[in-house]
Structure formats: C-alpha cells, structure tokens
Amino acid sequence: EPDCFEASFTLALVCDVSHDHLGFAESVATALRLRPDLAHVWLFKAMSGSRVGDFESAMADYARASQLDPEGTVGQQARGSRVLLQKNLGCRLQHTPCLAEALPRVRFAAQAPRAKPIELPCLSGPRPLFGGGRHYVQVWDNVLTEELLQHAKDSVDDLCIWGLKNPQQCQSFWLPCDAAPSTALEVVGRILLTEVLGHKVDDFVGIEWWCKNQSARLGAHFHYDSALQDGGLARPAYSSVLYLSDAGGPTVVLDQVADLHSAKWPEVPQEGHVVMPRASRYMVFPGELRHGCMSIDDCREPRFVVLFNFWSYHTPSGPSCQQPDFSSYLPVSASAVAARWLLPEQELRRLAEESDQSRRRGLGERSQIPVESCSADELAESGCTFGELPFAMPMPSLLRLKQGPTGAAVLRIPWLEVASDVLGAAEPLQGGVARRLRLWERWLSVD
C-alpha cells in the first residue's frame, strides 16, 4: 500500500527494530510524504539524517518536529536532540590563529586562587599508571588480535543501536567483576584491564562500556564521565577509548575537573592531550578529567569506538547503566538483532586464550605510543572552542594531527608553558597536573 500512511510508518518501525537503516529511511520518507503534519515522523527523519552525517537537514527536521508539537513529549525530545547536536557540531577544529587572545586567559586562570578548597565525596583507587612523571594520557596501538578486532568491528553498530533503542533505557552496559563475559567486546574489556593496564579483574567492582557510531564530521561535546542515574561526582578510576576505525577527529582530554564547589577547575584549561583514531588503538586517562571529541573535516564515514570505564568502588545505578539483555527489545519485541553477538562460553574463552597466547608468542605485538609535546609554532594556525568557551584555544593544525605513528598523532598541548614562554612565567595550579590528580585518589596505607 504505497499510499497508506499506517503501512509505511509501521514498516519504518519494523526496519528500526531490525536495524535496517536504509529501509527505515525510505519508509520514513514515504510516511512523511503522506502525513507531513506529524511531529514524530519528522523526529524519525532527523534521526535518519544524523546517522549518515546530514546534520544540516537533521537540525531543520528537529526544528519542524518541535514546531508541530510545541507542548508535547515529541517536541520536547526534538528540542533536546537539537540542542545536543548543536553542541556537538560546535566541537570543531577552526583554521584560525588564536594564540594572541587565548594565552593571556590561560595565564590569568593559572594565577586565580580557588574560593574554596577541593571537596570530594567519592574517590578512585590509586593509579600508578599515571605516576612517576608519566603523561596522564597513555596510548597503545595494535591492542587486539585480528580475530578480536574483527569481532569488535562486526558487532559495534548493532550493539550501539541496541543501546539507543532498547525500551529498558539502558544507555551503558555493566559487566560486574564476578560475572562472565557474554560478548566479544566484554572479553576485550577484560583483556584491556588485565593485559594492557596491568590490573586484576577484582581490583574493580566492574566495567561500564558502550559503543558509538557517528559520522566522522561530528564532534562530541565536552563532559565528565559519571554515574548518570546517581548524579553527584562519582567518577570511574579510568576512562578509556578503543578505536575501531581510522576516520574522524581526535579525542581531546583537558586538565579540568569538578568538585562540590567548582564545575570546571581551572576555568581555562592549562594543559590538554589529543589522540587521533586508528583501528586497534587504545587510550586511557583518569576518569575525573573533562574530555570530548573534535571534528577536523567533513568526512562522513562512520567513526566507530567502544568506551570502557573501570570503576574502583562505585557501581553506577540503573536503568541508565545495567547488565544488558541483548537478546530482545522487550516489551516491544521478543527478539533483537544484537542477540547474534551473544557468544557461547566456550567461544568467548577461546578468544581470550588465543589473545593471551598470541602475545606470548610475540605475534601482533602491542606498542605503546610516545606522547609528543606541541611547540608554540605548532599551535599558531588553528584553534577550538570545545563548543563552550567564548574564545578558541590554540590547537595543532590538521597537518600536524596527521603526523606521527601510522599517520595519527598523539600530542600533549602545554598551553600554560607556551603562555609562560611568551608572556612570562606563571606557577601551575596546585603544583601541576600530577599533584592535582592525587587529590582525586584514595591512597591506602600498606602495613
């Protein structure tokens, strides 16, 4: 029934649950042709456009949905999605010099005293990975075997869509320390924790993880990882990113943190790190630090990543974080496409054992990537507001970001050091980042 709205819209819903993205887009377009007065159809069209990187159309479609349902839940959802998309679009590399404006602000923030001392209700465990003068962002290449990497690439989109669509409102997935993995990506999380970070599984109460698939031309607004349902200042000990493709811009980690008296301290970041994506690259950083993603061009290829947060003491509450049931979309559907990525226990054990054995045989050796520091000259051409600052912070150029191991840079941006060189010395806050990070850790005495 090509001219039946109910048939077209029902088919769109079936395609959505089936993860048939092309069929979904076509059915929504047909439904919209028949009933352009319905807000929820415009909302679906906006979602479809966002998936393929047509953000200009998505912004207009969200606005149309809001106009058609100004007081209803669909209009409210459309307005919220539009605001979030606008924030993400603002996290973009600008090819404009900004050193002269930014450096005085960086230096002033370094000298500004806090009104109140740091106060934190929840701390992480000790993290020797960042001690001894090492960078607070650590990066490795070639972290997965070819088989595990392929499993991750094959499953990431279905698991990402399940996280967005499931009726249980489960936005991130929880793997308790005493639970067995049920997917290859949960095996990956355990491997990263034990083989790369060097911890034991029971050093942490669990792993929170989720998948992202978005167009490479979109950034990600700057934020803190937190237990969404709990509010407050609970933070994971480690936040980390596993890249499954080469497309897109870098993850950017700032030295800003939050406590009971300050949403962002320092107000202007003094130091940052940027990590460009490469398939099978893995980065980790302290979970209390503010971070996001900066887009660098108009590439529309998918940017696939898996995020792993390792929690020392706090267990994030549901429903936003819970052990997922990938087998269904209940109560909407008794089955789900994501169910095909639930693997038998024997297969999961084999994947973990073969990963360990391949490393022992020296096959596919992991390599830790050195962090290079940017000079003032390397920060002279470009900048980024991170979608929230009233001015741009100096950033490496697109050319510099594509230099380094396998054409993907791992860089430290020493804004305060550059400001001190240009404008005169300024003392770093609280003795620098290394000392500040200790304030967020629970250091236990050993008898």
What does this structure look like?
InterPro entries: TPR-like_helical_dom_sf, TPR_rpt. The structure is a single chain. With 447 residues, this protein is an alpha+beta fold. 34% of the residues lie in helices and 18% in strands. The chain has helices at residues 5-17, 21-34, 39-51, 55-68, 73-89, 99-111, 146-165, 184-196, 345-360, 398-401, 415-423, 433-438, and strands spanning 138-141, 172-176, 206-215, 220-223, 238-243, 251-254, 257-259, 262-265, 272-275, 281-286, 291-293, 302-311, 321-322, 367-368, 372-373, 382-384, 393-395, 410-413. An 8-stranded mixed sheet has the order 13-2-3-12-5-10-1-14. The longest helix has 20 residues, at 146-165. The protein is globular, with a radius of gyration of 23 Å.
CATH superfamily of the largest domain: q2cbj1_9rhob like domain
Shape: globular
Low-confidence stretches: none
Total DSSP helices: 12
Using the coordinates above, name the CATH class of the largest domain.
Mainly Beta
The overall average pLDDT, rounded, is 93
Query: How far is the first residue's CA from the last residue's CA?
Result: 76 Å
Provide the domain count.
Answer: 2
Helix content: 25-40%
Strand order in the largest sheet: 13-2-3-12-5-10-1-14
Q: What is the CATH third-level topology name of the largest domain?
A: Jelly Rolls
The tally of strands reads 18
- Strand proportion: 15-25%
Q: What profile does the largest beta sheet have?
A: 8 strands, mixed
Q: H/E element string?
A: HHHHHHEHEHEEEEEEEEEEEHEEEEHEHH
| Shape-level CATH architecture of the largest domain | Sandwich
Cα Rg = 23 Å
Alpha-beta classification? alpha+beta
